[in-house]
Design goal:
The chain contains 17 helices and 27 strands. It is of the alpha+beta class. The strands form five sheets. The chain has a six-stranded antiparallel sheet, with helices on both faces. Strands 13, 14, 15, 16, 19 and 20 form a six-stranded mixed sheet that branches. The protein has a five-stranded antiparallel sheet with strand order 2-1-5-4-3.
């Protein structure tokens, strides 16, 4: 009996100590959810009279902690339907409204002595621990959100979106304008007169919407902003008062802070490897807590990650700017002015920058014109450089007067060699077309490129669809060409994928937009851009328009000559008479010499049929064709040699000369400049 009595006394003693000395809160509540006993030493009730707690409902005791499920869960605990363990409740006790408190609540039911069911709630203050967890959560979210984009504005906004409503009520990010533009930056302090661009602003008033950005401004000296930019150190203003002396230095910003009710702020510089990129501001006006050193440490870590990502974006923007500048430098400045083809070209760099799109208009012998567009796969400086090398190779092959399908085969081999030089694959698409104004035909071949859009003089669609062979750089070759006749006034549109990728039924749209023969080419090109590119795309876009017309009959003369040395004199007289008809008598001497040497060369080394053709365009062209495919050789004749000077003489008298090969035989041609040509 004594032992049982001692045990009962011990239980009562422990129970009494538990409800008077335990550091955590203990609350016993009845079926009406009213407190019937509590721990008088618990936080929040210590020193309160008992009637301020006993008999009150749970939600009345938990003043300042709003949990809409509190009473419902308590009822479920009493009925045995639920058990609450470590449920977090956040709030601000009336006795300390400036400090957020986090409580961990557990609840279970008991039936003392088999009587009425009671509920027991155990409450523990876990504010310090939970605030640490909150900071780690912010860093975790920042790690996943910041740095996913190579755009300065997206990076800055990722920071703002991560912390608004958690660490700050508002966030602003200002970056040096030079950094936004991708310029190289030097280390050292940032002077007060250096402009910074607002790249992000968010607030709890409208967290889903960005505030005004893009404005350019400076931070007057001295303020926490200018000081952070000067020494690359953060500034903590725990309690901002209207009497702060620096507010008078920047009245406009002071007014904004005052109107918003900002009472605490942190300014952190964005620094990478000793270079200041900008500054980030964290503001509190709805959250009554002042910033402390823990908040400052968190803001610094966030600023460091943001600065690193912004610097990556700056480096990318710099590379993109260089690549775009290189690409523009490698493209033709303006297409050449020609009498048989009117052209208009547009090159629109993509947002990624430094793409591999190109176009070209290349005058060829015989008044022919080569039109080409292409696209090297990828983007960046290396791709722009590869594009320049391919375009140079194409131009070199084009002036050799290779047939389109043969030119693409040679260019495919060149691309494979380029890949070997770079140590990584290089592929490109290309469309190459040649318009002959004498025959009014267009011959085109494609290496994995979209066919051109072709329209007649009245805007009616024409069929010009060369088979899309393998991409350049695959080494497979096997290109085929198609030839179509183009009436005078026909229109060709060559383009790259960047122009049509974003639009549905793009070719049909192009056909409709370009079917207006009365509109200037430049207007047609602009109309196509307006319809197909409502916004800047990531990829480059090229559009090359060409309106063709044949050579007038009175500008062409052609004769078939027998393979007889005596005919050389006849050829000279024919040329002389034709020059007289064209009013070009001042070119008679040089032209007769050129014709004489070319005809003599064809008779001596070639085979029938031999043809002499003269074309008057922007230049005077003389061509002699024969049935032999033997290539001529320019020789350096010695003083004692009796022959071998013919082609050397032609090279001296003509502006340019060359040889082109056809299906049967070859043509040696020369050009002489005309006054005003």
């Amino acid at each position: 009996m004594s032992s049982r009595h001692d045990s009962g006394d011990l239980s009562a003693t422990v129970l009494e100590a538990l409800f008077t000395q335990a550091p955590m809160g203990l609350y016993v509540f009845d079926e009406q959810l009213r407190i019937v006993r509590y721990n008088t030493a618990g936080r929040g009730v210590r020193g309160l009279p008992s009637d301020a707690v006993l008999g009150r409902r749970l939600d009345e005791v938990a003043e300042g902690f709003h949990d809409p499920e509190l009473l419902s869960l308590a009822r479920q605990v009493l009925t045995g339907e639920a058990r609450v363990r470590n449920r977090l409740m956040r709030g601000r006790p009336p006795g300390d409204p400036d400090q957020e408190t986090v409580l961990s609540v557990s609840a279970f039911r008991v039936r003392p002595g088999g009587g009425h069911v009671l509920g027991v709630a155990v409450v523990e203050d876990v504010s310090a621990r939970q605030h640490t967890v909150d900071r780690l959560d912010i860093l975790h979210d920042a790690h996943h959100a910041i740095g996913t984009s190579l755009d300065v504005r997206d990076t800055a906004d990722a920071l703002a979106e991560t912390v608004v409503g958690r660490l700050a009520d508002a966030v602003s990010v200002d970056v040096l304008d030079e950094a936004v533009r991708g310029a190289a930056l030097s280390g050292g302090p940032v002077d007060a007169d250096v402009p910074l661009r607002r790249v992000a602003f968010r607030s709890v008033r409208d967290p889903a919407r960005q505030g005004p950005s893009g404005t350019l401004d400076t931070f007057p000296f001295p303020t926490p902003f200018s000081q952070s930019l000067q020494d690359a150190s953060p500034r903590l203003v725990a309690r901002l008062t209207p009497n702060e002396p620096w507010l008078s230095t920047d009245p406009e910003r002071a007014r904004l802070l005052t109107d918003a009710g900002v009472h605490s702020l942190i300014i952190t510089p964005l620094v990478v490897r000793g270079v200041v990129l900008g500054v980030a501001g964290f503001y509190r006006y709805r959250d009554p807590r002042p910033y402390d050193e823990n908040d400052l440490s968190l803001a610094e870590q966030l600023a460091q990650r943001t600065a690193l990502s912004i610097d990556n974006a700056r480096s990318y923007a710099r590379e993109r700017t260089i690549a775009t500048a290189l690409q523009r430098h490698l493209l033709p400045r303006t297409p050449p002015r020609l009498t048989t083809v009117d052209t208009a070209a547009l090159h629109l760099p993509g947002s990624v920058g430094g793409g591999g799109d190109w176009y070209d208009v290349i005058p060829l012998s015989g008044g022919r014109v080569a039109l080409t567009v292409g696209d090297v796969t990828g983007s960046g400086i290396e791709v722009a450089a590869a594009m320049g090398r391919l375009r140079t190779a194409l131009t070199t092959l084009a002036v050799r007067d290779l047939a389109p399908e043969e030119l693409l085969s040679c260019l495919d081999e060149t691309t494979v060699s380029l890949a070997l030089d770079r140590g990584e694959p290089v592929t490109a698409s290309c469309l190459y077309a040649v318009f002959d104004p004498v025959t009014r035909t267009c011959t085109a071949a494609s290496a994995g490129h979209a066919p051109p859009v072709a329209l007649g003089a009245l805007g009616e669609p024409l069929v010009l669809e060369p088979p899309a062979g393998p991409l350049l750089g695959t080494g497979r070759g096997g290109y085929e060409a198609v030839r179509v006749e183009l009436p005078d006034g026909s229109l060709l549109a060559l383009y790259t994928n960047g122009l049509v990728r974003a639009a549905a039924n793009a070719r049909q749209t192009l056909l409709r937009l370009l079917s207006h023969p009365d509109r200037p080419l430049r207007q047609l090109a602009d109309d196509a851009v307006y319809a197909l590119l409502p916004g800047q795309s990531e990829d480059d876009a090229v559009l090359l328009l060409a309106r063709t017309r044949g050579l007038a009959e009175d500008r062409l003369a052609e004769w078939t000559l027998p393979k007889d040395p005596a005919v050389v004199g006849t050829a000279r007289r024919l040329a002389e008479h034709q020059l007289s008809d064209w009013g070009l008598e001042d070119l008679s001497f040089t032209t007769e010499l050129i014709v004489s040497e070319l005809v003599t060369n064809a008779i001596r080394y070639g085979s029938p049929p031999i043809r002499l053709r003269m074309i008057r365009d922007r230049s005077l062209m003389c061509e002699v064709s024969d049935g032999s495919s033997t290539a001529p050789h320019l020789r350096n004749a010695r003083s004692i040699d009796e022959g071998g000077r013919g082609l050397a003489l032609v090279a001296q008298l003509a502006t340019r000369w060359g040889t082109r090969f056809g299906r049967r035989g070859k043509t040696i041609w020369s050009e002489q400049e005309l006054d005003g040509g």
